[in-house]
Amino acid sequence: MPSRISTARPPAPVSSRPAPAPAEGRPSTRSTRTVSPADTFSGATPRGTTARSTVAPLPSLTLGTSAQVSPNAAIPDRGTITSRLSLNDAVTIDKLSLNLDLQHTWRGDLKVTLTSPSGKSVVVHNRTGGSADDLKGTFDLSGFAGEPAKGEWTLTVADEARGDVGVLKSWKLSATGARPRPTDNEFRSTVGGMYPPVAAGSFFTQLKQARILTQLSLSAQASVASRGMTPSDFEVRAKLRSLDVMLPTQEATRTTRHDFSSRIEGVAPEKAYEHFVQNPGQVFGAADLKVRPGVGRLEHGQRLMLEAPGSPSVWFPVEVRLDPAQRTIGILTLDGHPLRGTNDFSFTSDGRGGTRVEQLTRYQLSSKAAELGMDAAALRRQHDTWQKVHAHFFTQFHPGA
Amino acid sequence: MPRVSTPESEVAKLGATAQIEAHHSDEALLNELFALAELSHETVVGWAVTPAAARKKFLVERSAAVARGDALAARSPEEVSPLLRGEQAKACREWATAREALLGLG
After folding, report:
1. pLDDT of A240 over the 90 cut
2. Dihedral, CA atoms, A385, A389, A390, A393, nearest 10 degrees?
3. Is pLDDT at B101 greater than 90 in this prediction?
4. Are A153 and A84 spatial neighbours (Cβ–Cβ below 8 Å)?
5. Of A81, A179, A221, A242, which has the most beta carbons under 10 Å away?
6. Is the peptide bond before A231 cis (omega within 30 degrees of 0)?
């Protein structure tokens, strides 16, 4: 593509490592299924394409649940009674035991059946024992292995012979097993709008952005080479202060949309939002991005460099916007970022006790120089970067992934 | 926020692309020098209430920050874009003041 802008001066930070919005990373290693370029970023109709991938299955934790009822219900001669109890914890059954206390004057008359919440039935006792009294003790019921424990269980006692009666005094169910763990964060990405992304802004603006980008790249390389010792955090803060916020131009038709979403099962939105605010180093670190200067938490109006190591290494200057009431985190690009755009995270209820993480990215390229490196591979890296961040949200609350 | 942002109409008068590029580089470095001076001033003003850990960290970083400021201020106004000479001189003065105060911390 012809360019009016010289990119001859090294380093050329966007020629081989074009920018994410506002940061990029490398292909995910946690995904069980990654999105191929063809899925999302290339082909004849890239706009509005969606893709889905998952995080790796999680190991289980063993836990138990139990409940007891004491119906003291009479068992009529040649009659049938039922009794119900509920187990409240979501456990996938490994072992289930029934502790039964049933008085009867002729055990051989009885047939006892247990039925799970899903409707599966197992015969616990079937007219054995002859004339002996009572049916008491613990029965291990391996036939329910793999069934979900949570829900209403039904015990059916049938007296199938004439002459004797009894009482179902009490029964107890104890289940041990694994909590059903989420294995999928339902990560999805959508690309739309202008594709591939293009440079926006006036010629002079683009020229300016290219120069600042080059200067920042030199600092980024020095930083990576010195493992963050150079420049100092003081200098980084000064550099950030000297930059202006660089939002997309009003040319809406030139804007690329890149949206991501995922779900964190069983975690309240407040908790997920707070995790991001309190642990920016962890969140961005999941995508191999270092936060400079090092900060303990995100603050409204705070400016940061997201440093991507590599060849060449890149600094992505951004400003943070927080809205705790709405649980949104906005990331705006600053001068020298290869992109001019916004990246808005929102943490909302998924309606099932978990969190829906929505990430809406809108950007244009800040210069023609940035355009040179913005190919399908670059967009895929951007996808992978944010996939890692979303995977981090998930694994943070479901450790072991 | 950058202290200096030359209007495009003024930048356009420079004519050649190479001069425009040089102007933008100069402007970015100038703004960095202003920012260093401002941050230094704020550091000095807030020193009394700065936590010990932050003080210690700054004192470690101070020599590098001063070196960077000195490097940016070493360029005379004549060496920068003609549109920025007055601002360059001003930034150098601000830096000189901030630098002295900065080195007085301890």
Report:
1. yes
2. 170
3. yes
4. yes
5. A242
6. yes
Length of chain A, in residues: 401
8 Å CB contact of A242 and B39: no
In 3-state terms, what secondary structure has residue A18? coil
Position A311 confidence tier, pLDDT thresholds 50, 70, 90? confident
pLDDT at A2 over 50: no
pTM of the model: 0.70
Q: What is the ipTM of this complex?
A: 0.96
Q: Which of residues 56-95 of A touch B (CB under 8 A)?
A: none
Contacts of residue B2 in chain A, CB cutoff 8 Å? 242-244, 335
Chain B residues within an 8 Å CB radius of A215 = 25, 28-29
CB A24 within 8 A of CB A306: no
Average pLDDT over residues A253-280: 95
Measured between beta carbons, the chain A residues lying within 8 angstroms of B24 are 207-208, 211-212
Measured in residues, chain B has a length of 106
Any long-range contacts for A392-395 (C-beta under 8 Å, 24+ apart)? A392/A282, A392/A283, A392/A286, A392/A287, A393/A185, A393/A262, A393/A264, A393/A272, A393/A275, A393/A276, A393/A283, A393/A355, A393/A357, A394/A55, A394/A182, A394/A185, A394/A262, A394/A264, A395/A30, A395/A55
**A207, A233, A242: residue with CB nearest B31:** A242
**CA-based nearest residue to A380, from A12, A22, A100, A34:** A34
- Please, which pLDDT band fits residue A369 given cuts at 50, 70 and 90? confident
Does the beta-carbon distance from B65 to A234 stay under 8 Å? yes
Q: CA-CA distance, A305 to A293, in Å (whole number)?
A: 7
CA angle A273, A276, A279 (to 5 degrees): 140
Q: Tokens at residue A109, please?
A: 């008359």
| Contact between chains at B61 and A205 (C-beta distance less than 8 A) | no
Q: Tell me if chain A has a CB within 8 Å of the CB of B65.
A: yes
Confidence of residue A400 (pLDDT cuts 50, 70, 90): low
